[in-house]
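Task: sequence in, structure out. Protein: Small ribosomal subunit protein uS11c.
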Amino acid sequence: MKKTITRIGSRRSERISSRKTGRRIPKGVIHVQASFNNTIITITDIRGRVVSWSSAGTCGFKGTRRGTPFAAQTAAANAIRTVVDQGMQRAEVMIKGPGLGRDAALRAIRRSGILLSFVRDVTPMPHNGCRPPKKRRI
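Result:
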């Protein structure tokens, strides 16, 4: 006769549930990537693990409307709403890209009530970049 082993709970499911409820994040980093076509907001903790993210596309904007400042503002508000519930009070902001959503996203972050320690522009700039192609011969 076979003995049945009673399982109290699997370790995997317990770890996931405890992490979702018990993780308090007092300080984090908000990354804003603003291109001409879309704006992506990613919120991480200090170690760089993603806590929440949102983009203009996931908020329901399609086509050319994704690149608008209003879409960036909505995306920032969506991303921040979940992190404020987890207890984030302070944040650093890293802004990358030339898009229209830069200022609107920053305005939405300021309005959320999170204290900003600094705002840094991390847009990559070439130091004279790649070699240009040869001139066309006529």
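The CA atoms of residues 128 and 134 lie 16 Å apart.
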